[in-house]
Amino acid sequence: MDPHSAVGLGGNGVLGVVIPLDENRPDPEASLTDLVALVATGMERVNATILSRTGSSVQMIPEVANHLIASGGKRLRPILTLATADMCAYAGDGAVKLAASVEFMHTATLLHDDVVDESDMRRGSVAARIKWGNEASVLVGDFLLGQAFRMMVEVGSLKALDILSAAATVIAEGEVMQLAAAKNTETTEDEYLAVIRAKTAELFAAACEVGPVIAERPRAEQAACRAYGMNLGIAFQLVDDVLDYGGTSASLGKNVGDDFREGKITLPIVLAFRRGTDAERAFWKRTLEAGDVSDEDLATALTILRGHRALEDTLERARHYGAMARDALGLFPKGPMKQALLQVVDFCIARAH
Amino acid sequence: MDPHSAVGLGGNGVLGVVIPLDENRPDPEASLTDLVALVATGMERVNATILSRTGSSVQMIPEVANHLIASGGKRLRPILTLATADMCAYAGDGAVKLAASVEFMHTATLLHDDVVDESDMRRGSVAARIKWGNEASVLVGDFLLGQAFRMMVEVGSLKALDILSAAATVIAEGEVMQLAAAKNTETTEDEYLAVIRAKTAELFAAACEVGPVIAERPRAEQAACRAYGMNLGIAFQLVDDVLDYGGTSASLGKNVGDDFREGKITLPIVLAFRRGTDAERAFWKRTLEAGDVSDEDLATALTILRGHRALEDTLERARHYGAMARDALGLFPKGPMKQALLQVVDFCIARAH
């Protein structure tokens, strides 16, 4: 029986119970639209803050920073900070600066990542390191990190500072973990999860946790928002992993198969490797570990991944974390902000289709 | 008349006034010994903190961090934090963590600098980026920066957090400024000073300022310690610039002429370029701007620098900032810590001989 049909007559002839619209059921029409509309005023102030805080008398800094910041991105992380603060009835000024801090931390990570990954493209544009050099990417990243901390200090919440500075450490640890695990096809699913928890999900978690923290809500609500962000972040990264093999160049802003060509071990690979034949494992070792990749290898990789349902099952795992994210918000009363945050989970996963 | 002779008979026959030992007069026997002894107990705790805070379950992080941290360096910056806190009669626990934070900020800068400069050597050892790759240098630097902020948060002084996070931003700005000015032989002395104020002296200034800040001393003492650190930092960098052309490989831990080969514009170059003939300017443009450097060019460079007294006069400029650093401490009463801090200025300059 479709739980969306409000009333039904059971097969045994008794009048069916009314089944309420289940907020834990994924919304097939999920989009970011509601959430974006709800935080629009705050995000205008976040964007103005971002613009003013990339300002520097050193000309190259706003150039490089704005190249990346202006090139889009949904600004999901700062949106989450505003949204969780609002859901917790926060009425002060601090959320805007914390949201801008979160976006700066994210941008700094992207700049440093490009140097680490030797990427040529980012968000559909030439990567900053190609245009201005590795030096500028490292240093402007450092500048943005410094500005992020300055804004947090201005907000004055030591607890929020603690959360975000700890996140900065954990993110770097996650990146180093990824580096150490790089090109190791025998990475386990648990090891991979530890990496993406640290390098991606931790910032989502921190972005969501500081909302109830500055609103001075009870610990349980802080933990709930943190868990929502953490699981949303994991789901988000897993869907990204799928998109890297299944999206189109146009919609993704980068080429399909980037992870494959860079020898990145992501969950689809972890699953396919463990489910594969000896010949398939030899293929993954040659291409990902030895870096011996020809033009036809991507097609072969996709065939193997599909043969083992590795992309579908990665998405299934993402749904699992998405469900955890939805449940984490259970203790908050219904309201438009909560509803919009639930939709975001579904939106993140629906990207993969 | 030698002001160190306590009593003299003036030429006009009247008894000369007693001239006290002038604390503003450079001490030719200057060394770090006194200061190191005075902060020894605190530095043991700083070193233990540094060791424990580079700990991570991600093995590569302590490896890379300790490669650099264990390879020496005088730890002048954390020493300055302990010393200024002590001079201001601070009795709490915070100075140790702030001192460790300062050293982590410095180490992070060194790691990122090596990537920016593409250096092969650092403190007489192979640079971390050569041993572990640029990726590790970028990311372990980020990790240390995150840990630095976590320790500051633990200390709980928003004012100290403000000073050190602002310093992080200014340092990055200074590095970008240097990048933008790189290979420009027409850099003015003022432009060069702006760069080293930001990239080197700001951290000295912040390291010294947080001492009186956590001791909750009046603004004038905070400003005095900041000015001491700022001017000491400028003098320190100018002496480094001289050492790069005049030190020996053994004593310096890096090869003489590194700055020259990397096309770095430092004050000796700025002075020699402005004082030079057209032929000499063409030489600097060829070697530093165009990067066309042969093995004999370093000897030529040294001859030109000496011909214009560029190294001596850079050292003279360093003495000027050293004198400002000494005077900045004027309002503090005499005492062994103040005396040791004055000696440090002379020690920094005496390195150049």
TrEMBL record, chains A, B:
A Gene Ontology annotation in the biological process aspect, one of them, is: isoprenoid biosynthetic process
- Record Gene3D superfamilies: Farnesyl Diphosphate Synthase
Hydrolase in keyword set: no
**One Pfam family named in its UniProt record:** polyprenyl_synt
**Keyword entries, A-Z:** Magnesium, Metal-binding, Transferase
**Per its Swiss-Prot or TrEMBL entry, what cofactor is needed?**
Mg(2+)
Keyword Membrane, does the record have it? no
Domain of life of the organism encoding this protein: Bacteria
Q: Which GO terms describe its molecular function?
A: metal ion binding; prenyltransferase activity
> Which family does the UniProt entry place this protein in?
Belongs to the FPP/GGPP synthase family.
What organism does the UniProt record list as the source? Answer: Methylobacterium gossipiicola
- Write down what this protein is called: Octaprenyl-diphosphate synthase
